[in-house]
Design a protein that fits this description.
By secondary structure, the chain is mainly beta. The protein is built from no helices and 6 strands. About 15% of the residues are buried.
């Protein structure tokens, strides 16, 4: 998992206050800014949208998915955004492995 991901980036996170919440999967109280567990399910947020551009150091950027190019902050939940499009994660191309049969 990425070190940048936090509990509040997960669909299973239910906020209680500004510092903690409940994991809907484990039913345990978790701190917002701790690393995620193996049951992490990415929540749709502007920062992972392909239309989120030109983010500054405070994670404020532009939404190019809306005609007027509104500014937005990256941690804004985008679960109801009609323009949301998850960024494509680059995948490594698999190296071709030559099959060796016992007769070769």
């Amino acid at each position: 998992m990425s070190e940048d991901l936090r509990h509040d980036d997960c669909q299973n996170f239910i906020p209680i206050d500004v510092a903690k919440g409940i994991c809907n999967y484990t039913q345990e109280i978790v701190l917002i800014d701790h690393q995620v567990c193996s049951k992490f399910a990415q929540l749709a947020k502007c920062k992972i949208c392909s239309y989120f551009k030109k983010a500054d150091d405070k994670l404020i950027g532009l939404c190019t998915g809306i005609n007027d190019g509104y500014w937005t902050y990256g941690d804004l939940k985008a679960v109801t955004c009609e323009s949301f499009s998850r960024k494509k994660v680059p995948t490594r191309s698999a190296k071709k492995v030559r099959s060796m049969s016992p007769t070769e």
